[in-house]
Specification:
mainly alpha
Length: 73
């Protein structure tokens, strides 16, 4: 597979519970965390008319993308 990778690297800090959710999701789906995170980022709306309160709602919608993990501790 010959992919041209992005030139930027992102490092994020996650709470233990967030990392556990991501790891569990990746284990259950067999997908690497990088792919899951990229997909979630691609699903974000980039409409410039989004106001901050809409961005919070957008984050909640992303959490719903992982419904089996959204309500776990």
């Amino acid at each position: 597979m010959n992919k041209k990778w992005a030139v930027k690297r992102l490092t994020i800090n996650l709470a233990t519970s967030e990392m556990e959710k991501l790891e569990e999701y990746c284990q259950k789906t067999g997908r690497p965390a990088t792919d899951v995170i990229r997909e979630l980022i691609r699903s974000l709306e980039t409409n410039s008319s989004i106001v901050p309160s809409q961005k919070v709602g957008q984050a909640e919608n992303i959490a719903q993308s992982l419904p089996e993990f959204a309500n776990s501790p």
